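Structural biology now treats backbone shape like a language. To illustrate, our science desk offers a sequence and the tokens encoding its fold:
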Amino acid sequence: MGKAGVDTALGRRLARWRQVPSGRLVAPVACALYEVFFLTRYISLPDGPLTPTALLALLCITLASTIGVFFRYRAPFAIVVLESLLTLCSEITFLTFVPLCMAVFAVIAKARPVKGLVGGALAFVAVLPEAIAGGFAGNAIIRSCLLTVAVVGGLVSRMQRAKREAIQEIEREHASRRRAERRSRIAGELHDSVGHDLTAIIALAEGLCESDDEDARRVSALIGKLARSGLADTRSAVRAISAPIDADPAGSSAPSRGDDLHDLDELRACMDDIRATGIAAVLTTSGKHPSDEGQDDLCFRIAREAATNSIRHGRSVTRVSVALDFDDEGSCTLTVRDDGCHPKTPARAGFGLSRLQDEVEHVGGTWRAGPARDRGWEVVATVLRFGRRDTGQGDFDA
């Protein structure tokens, strides 16, 4: 393994170690033990006992200096200023010097460049009086070197963090590009496969329309109508999938479907299509209907999918009912019920209803699907108002 590999591996280990709460406490606890050890040794020196006032001042300075180490990453500039002032005020600087070095490292590594520069300068100013008194020799040189090491260490940590953030940003961009490519591929497959099949169905239905049989012409016209509707929905889905990922506002709960939102008036046509199959279809509404396009679109898609599932999966279905009940706040309780026979232990929910359930719950609504009280199957969804385009109150007549 080369040097770059070793540095990268070490950087990752240190980053993981810093993310662990107990790992972040190792350095402050070690500093506290250092302070306790040398403070007790200094107090027990045989040179003579400290006066009570001097002892109290020494204890306060040491305690404040040690506590500051625990908050050096939360407020790095404030802590380095505190440690510098304590070092200036203390006659025994070796008790405040280690916390000062740790504060310098933190302010260089975490704070803004200007604050890091000012904090480092304050630290050197704090040890300057003792260096002058010592003639810039001995301990003064050692402490200046240690402060320099803290500054360099902070700079290295800062560069490592910047490098990690740059790598993470590149990885996010690559992931976003992969998602965009996948969306484009799905859109292309959807357009080429489903679009082709629906176009072929439309062409065949138009050929049947030329038949002399009235029933054949009526059925072929319905087939053509449904195929055209499906083709329009397919093209809408292709446009939605092909749209740039950043086009939708982050966190938006309303559907982003451009100008292809469905309204509740389309439910009438949907119920007519069900009646054309020989099944009774009933649409009822109650309450004041708010003009909310997002809510209308979601209610339509739920009703269409639930009714389609009733016809597709139910046995002996003779009636499908759709009820829209609006409350005073504009929320809609949508109930789709059939009278067919369904297994007591249905298979896992399909993609369509599962996706719609996620959409309902995402905007704060509720969802229930299961056997009806007497017979059949029902889907009950409470869809809240999106507030996306509230243009006032209006009535929807079934």
